[in-house]
Amino acid sequence: MLNLRPLLFILGIFLSTLTVFMFIPLIFALFYGEETVGAFMISSLFTGTCASACIHQGRSRNLHLNIRDMFLLTSLTWLIVSFFAAMPFTLYHGINYTDAFFETMSGITTTGSTVLSGLDSMDHSILIWRSLLQWMGGIGFIVMAVAVLPFLNVGGMRLFRTESSDWSDKAIPRTQDMAKHLFYIYILLTVLCGIAYHLSGMNWFQAINHAMTTLSTGGYSTSDSSMAAFSNQAHWVGVVFMAAGGLPLLMFVNSIQQRSLWVWNDAQVKGFILFISLVSMSLAFWLWLGHEMSPLDALRLASFNVVSVVTTTGYGLTDYTAWGALANIAFLFLMFAGSCSGSTSGGIKIFRFQIAGAIMREQLKQQFHPSGVFKERYNNRIISDDIVRSLVTFILLFAFVIVLLSIILVLTGLDPMTSFTGAITAVTNVGPGLGDIIGPAGNFSTLPDVAKWALAIGMLLGRLEILTVAVLFHPQFWKY
What we know:
The structure is a single chain. By secondary structure, the chain is mainly α. It has 18 helices and 2 strands. It has a two-stranded antiparallel sheet.
């Protein structure tokens, strides 16, 4: 039987937090005298009222959650928060609820796909709200990836299980302490990013917005031209802090607490840095040879776009689909990559590719020595059969969801390229796809409403690592 009281209470806490964040764009609207004052006042009042009702009905001395409660709460939280967070967009002129929910889900899942245009002249309150959604979604996913997903054994995440992943009564204070430290580091990196953007030529409003959407690897901008509207120095700032957003935030915490850099001697961190470095230099060499660019410009464009796609940030700088067939194929595969576990990025994640490689090595050794017993390790931990099963299940579901979503999009009348890359970019939380419609130079506004709802669901599935949601549809889940 479901524990409804704790679920209601925790959902009420999340909605209360959302209400507080709604006051930030309300202040901007009042300061700039914008018409969105009413939209944010109504939204905050309604959200706050529902939050109070949930907390009142769910208050209990026993807030113990079992595994089923955790799975359900994880999915419900992102869905319900998106429903309420879409309200300011709905009350803003010219945006229907489908577009409002799509924009909100894209923001909270840090996907970065957008249906809005005219950003350069848009109300400050709407722009800051979009950025806040991504910033909240980024820290929310980090806490979930560090504390919840390893406990639920989602897609091989048990390899990263810590004492904070144990939801026993003794571990709850440790989990709260861990979340607090992650939040402080997240704020610190955001502040540093904002200052760096300002020094690169952005005004403070642009710098604040882009700092929030860079660290969260979300990719929302204050300009239709995205990062192309800003200086070359801003592009390099983006590369550094997008890469920081793709690293495990918990390692920043451990590094500061232990006053040592040895914690960065991690297989996925080294793999991530090596991967983006090699791909960036390879594409830079390709641009320098075939597109008459200076070496520095080629490296800047290649590095920015590679890091943007691999970390699933999705900022636009240039239309890399015009770089030729090699670049198109490269970026299509880069959409799947993702960066590190415990970061704000989406995608498959580097560690899963590394584990797959280790399993392949083990299998090859077994072919040469059929009677031998081989156990591959990852970060000095044995890769158990349980982790292998979880990883294989995740990869199969990941591919299945992309194929199914592609078929749905084709049935709405979209062309195969838009359908396929749209499905990929939604599930991997990258943002832009490929092609003329949803490529780096386009957006999702012209897509049919059915396609937008399908993509919004795809974003949620990708953000929650698919298995977290898929388990809810298994009959066994509801039997106890």
